[in-house]
Amino acid sequence: MEEFTLVKDFAIIMAVAGGVTLLFRRLRQPPILGYLIAGLIISPYTLPIPLVENIDTIRLLADLGLVLLLFGIGLEFSWSKIRAVGLVAPIIGGIEIFTMFALGYGLGQLFGWSTLDSIFLGAAMHISSSAIIVKILRDMGRQNLLSSKLIVGILVVEDFAAVIIIAVLSGIATTGAATFGDIGSLMLRLIIFFAAALGFGALLVPRIIEITHRFHSREALLITSISLCFIMALLSEYLGLSVAAGAFLIGALIGDTKHSKEIDQVVTPVRDMFAALFFVSIGMLINILQFKSFIFLALATSALFILGKILGNTLGTFLCGFTGRTSLRVGTGMPQAGEFSLAIAKTGVDSGAVIPLLYPVVVATTAITSFTTPYIIRLADPITDLLNRRASEPIKRYEASFSNWLHGIRNAFSSRSKPAQEIQHSGRNVLVNFLLIVVLIGIGTSAVQFVDNIATFTHLRPDILGLLISFLIVVLCVPALIAFWRNLRLLIDETIKYLLSRRSSARALNQETLHTIIRGSIMVTLSILLAIWSIPLIISLLSLGSFAIAAPIILLAILIYFLSTSVRNIHSQLETTF
Amino acid sequence: MEEFTLVKDFAIIMAVAGGVTLLFRRLRQPPILGYLIAGLIISPYTLPIPLVENIDTIRLLADLGLVLLLFGIGLEFSWSKIRAVGLVAPIIGGIEIFTMFALGYGLGQLFGWSTLDSIFLGAAMHISSSAIIVKILRDMGRQNLLSSKLIVGILVVEDFAAVIIIAVLSGIATTGAATFGDIGSLMLRLIIFFAAALGFGALLVPRIIEITHRFHSREALLITSISLCFIMALLSEYLGLSVAAGAFLIGALIGDTKHSKEIDQVVTPVRDMFAALFFVSIGMLINILQFKSFIFLALATSALFILGKILGNTLGTFLCGFTGRTSLRVGTGMPQAGEFSLAIAKTGVDSGAVIPLLYPVVVATTAITSFTTPYIIRLADPITDLLNRRASEPIKRYEASFSNWLHGIRNAFSSRSKPAQEIQHSGRNVLVNFLLIVVLIGIGTSAVQFVDNIATFTHLRPDILGLLISFLIVVLCVPALIAFWRNLRLLIDETIKYLLSRRSSARALNQETLHTIIRGSIMVTLSILLAIWSIPLIISLLSLGSFAIAAPIILLAILIYFLSTSVRNIHSQLETTF
User: Fold this and answer.
1) Does residue A3 lie in a domain region?
2) Rounded distance, CA A355 to CA A353, Å?
């Protein structure tokens, strides 16, 4: 009867998973936490006698689970969801992704991890769990709130970004280190892959689904969808990308066909079962004996993840012109790690290129945030109410006028009048120049990675080279900064004029005060964001030592001076006006 | 990238299975045939370079598939379906199961296989595929016909019988040979198992399902159902029974809870996917190079399976008082081997106790009958019409009067009038005495298996012992035969009286003619059935040689004499009357 050992393993896994998740549902905790803990319970590290015999087979099955899980997320992903929120989701998502990536990278460096390890931690931290968050919002009856629509939009942006990031990272992880040639070949493969996926998708997938649908058989739809999913996963695997990326993309392609609902219905149970297996097997990989070695790292990661996510998303949403309440709801709705973070950790650790400790840290972060999310989501409204009650009059006025101004910009983008068009024009210029600065910092960051190579080639000291590169970046940024500044002033002038002509409430403040306050606030916000996003660059410069340290110190001094003057200006304006 | 080999295997299996079944659906063939052929195509025996690497893992997954497949059949099984057809389904099912078992056993002996091998072939041949037949009937829009309801009822009876047979057989197979002690211990385990299943089922299952249902989560329902399924499969495995039996029983228990529909919806896709994997893996086990060694056996098995199923079910249905048309529809609806036959073959071959050749023979039979079923089902009505047109007047009259009489009995069983009660009384006596004869033959058959043991113990020649046993059976049958004969006469008398009093059409024949015709027909039918059911006994006696051959020869002579007189009587009566 030896051949039925897998049935036994399966019975044990499903029984423990079923029992623990029922208990967790009762305790109103998300099932993912239950699965992870079920895995921890039956882990060979936890039990003296291993309950599950075919651990390797279960791990192989978990791979299928990962593919089906991301396929399912792809199925639910749709362009219409992004379109429903408009340009706002990519902007908030972009701000948040950069912030989380920089924070995660910085944290990895703080742990003393290598560059690649830190990049993987940053990648794992940039993304929230669509599956869990959407489920919690639905369970709370909040799915129709504006904030929930924004959250779903941001999640979709994150998922899509994650697919690209996983593809790039698994490329880097398999080649070990990244050289320019590697990245070039990787980019080429990515382009081929996306072109193949889109070509395959646009031409073949709808036809295959249509032919299958004609048989009016749910079984046929299921088998066809799953085979398409695995073919695509395999294709992306052959191109050196990840199975996850392929599964997600084909899911998104099938999700765009007109029978996506039926397919979703038949695929969901299969995905749920394999996902359970995936999460349990993830839990099983945790060595409880090493608890001490990862728990502090995991707690630090979780704390930074939660704070970073709340801050990044609240700030991003607020900057896009939504009220403080909505912004805080979006911010508190996001700090939940999940399937994509685990996929990224798995991709890295399985390839052997990344520190194995990444695994338990990400798993524990997923577990901890699964536990905290329901409470944090409920905090948004009480905090907003508390702030409204406790805040002093000047601060309330400040928030109202700043929010009014941002709202004015957003409105201007949906209008076609003459002043609105001018606002749109300068708004785009502000955005473009800001992006230019971000891109320059990004290029500088990757250039610093090659300082050692260039140093041996040019016989220059690495720290001096680092200093040269950072000054070069600053110099290159100057034109963009000037254009940014000029357009920001224009934008502020025009929006205030526009607001004054339409809203009587804005007239309570005089124009000069408004100018100072808004300009100051924008500069403070963007400086903080830029500072966070420069963390990888600064850390790289610091590691070069001696002269290279000068650049970050000078930049920091400028930043502090700048922030303090801006804040002081805003403060004095508020004092004198009210 | 080694860890993704299972994803590759899965992609290949699903792609080939998906492609082939789409083609087969197009050709209007059942998908099971497609899966088997897909398996044959990617079989390591077929391809020079094996496409699928983790064959062992795929086989382990196929075990999960078998469990889920039988769980799904159990879910669809329900007592209400049996109740809808009444007592008729068990009677037809019983007649057919005995017939097929005897024919299959005889065929196995003809192939020169051992007793155990022949028993397994008989067991594999006794059962039709619920999954395929129900699907074909639904596809043809026939699900509401009386014949289709009868078919479903018979299928349910077969499934339930199969669970007991698999449990007994897997017990026998693991202990190798069957001794009285083994069978005793097996029966004890079976009783414990059924008691545990029913206790567990009645007390726990509805509560667990109810608790799970409260969370309004399809995922929770799915995980709970699947864990119950695997726990039960494991339990039955531990008791030395088969995983299939446990999965089917728990399925039937869950199918009786009030949320069975929702559970069926979520379990179906998971079952469909694993079933596809199961059928493909079955196909992969076929060695195409051994094609010559099994194809003739498979063709013989298929031919006997198709003929036996049509004959047994048509005859059984007709005997239960349905029209010739309905009977033929039921008969032609049944010859389709499927999942249970494969499960029985797998149980036997995997245990190592049964000839490996059984596997390809049963698989090929499943494939061949999958191919023939749609055509055979469509034959029923044309054949009935052809017979109606071509049959001579006496035969039509004969069929009409016999059918009227049987219909009269069936009606009497649903009435409470005085004559009806007398018919019921004698009808029950006829049935009980007939069953007594069947049981005596059954006991004699198993007794003959131990002739060699008894012979060495008593120092008697085995053939003389065989002769003694068979005469003992005949002697023991005498009282039952007398009671049978007397009650049959009573039954015929009373039914004819009853019919004459209610139906004018029956008056066209005089009473004496009717008596002879009906008595003769019943005796011919039952003699043929008894002769078929005695095949295992006769074969066993023949194998003892010398004197033991006397018994079958004498019995055969009696049978032939009896049949010829009965047929001659009926014929002459028909000649003189019409």
Assistant:
1) no
2) 7
B167 and B46 belong to one structural domain:
yes
Q: Do B227 and A350 touch (CB under 8 A)?
A: no
Q: Is residue A361 a part of any domain in this protein?
A: yes
d(CA A451, CA A464): 10
Q: Is residue A374 located within the same domain as residue A402?
A: no
Most distant CA pair in chain A, distance:
86
CB contact under 8 A, A218 and B269: yes
> What is the distance between the alpha carbons of residues A516 and A526, in angstroms, rounded to a whole number?
15
pLDDT per residue as tens digits for the range A204-225: 888 888 888 888 888 888 999 9
For A226, A248, A340, B2, the CA distances from A71, given in Å and listed in that order, are 9, 5, 12, 21
The tokens describing A48, both together, are: 């003296």
Q: Is the pLDDT of residue A83 over 70?
A: no
Domain assignment of residue A5, yes or no: no
Per the structure, the complete domain to which residue B570 belongs is given by: 391-577
- Judged by DSSP in three states, A542 sits in helix
Give the mutation candidate from B28, B53, B54, B60 for the A interface (greatest A CB count, under 10 A). Answer: B60
Which amino acid is it at A231?
A: I
For every residue of A151-182, DSSP letters joined together read HHHHHHHHHHHHHHHHHHHHHHHHHSS--HHH
- The runs of H, that is alpha helices, within A214-336 are 218-238, 243-255, 260-284, 291-319, 324-333
Is the domain of B128 the same as that of B246? yes
Same-domain status, A332 and A409 = no
Among B74, B87, B43, which residue's Cα sits nearest to residue B427?
B87
Picking from A4, A224, A273, the nearest residue to B22 by CB comes out as: A224
pLDDT tens per residue across span B449-469: 777 777 777 777 777 877 888
Contacts of B220 in chain A (CB under 8 A): 21-22, 25, 31
Please check the confidence at residue B578 and state whether its pLDDT lies above 70: no
B208/B130 same-domain check: yes
Number of domains in chain B: 2
Residue A2 inside a domain? The answer is no
Q: Does A174 sit within 8 Å of B14, measured CB to CB?
A: no
Of B37, B1, B2, B3, the C-alpha closest to B17 is: B37
Mark whether A314 and A405 lie in a shared domain.
no
* A339 and A401 housed in the same domain: no
In this structure, the answer to whether residues B339 and B447 fall within a common structural domain is no
- pLDDT band for A1, please (50, 70, 90 cuts): very low
Copy the structure tokens of residue A477. Answer: 């940024």
